[in-house]
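Lab notebook, bench 4. Still working through the backlog of constructs that have no structural model yet. Next entry is a single chain of 76 residues. Request: give me the structure tokens for it.
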Amino acid sequence: VVSISSEGNNFEVVKSFEEDARKENNNQEIKKFKTEIEGLKGRFVKINATNICTCPKWHEGADGKAWLFVDEIIIR
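Model written out:
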């Protein structure tokens, strides 16, 4: 979820993404999510990404803790 705010307290959601991380897939992947926010102004950007908590049964780490890695966030 991408949200913006002009004062840093009251955020407005501008875009939500959904990804089915439990779908069977043994490939390591890099996912890119992009949004264009036109006509809105804000000084603060909040990004909320939630992992799936536990690795699915098909995963080599089945029933173990799931991790979510975020490498880069670019704002222009």
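Notes after review: The radius of gyration is 16 Å. The mean pLDDT is 87. Flag for follow-up if needed.
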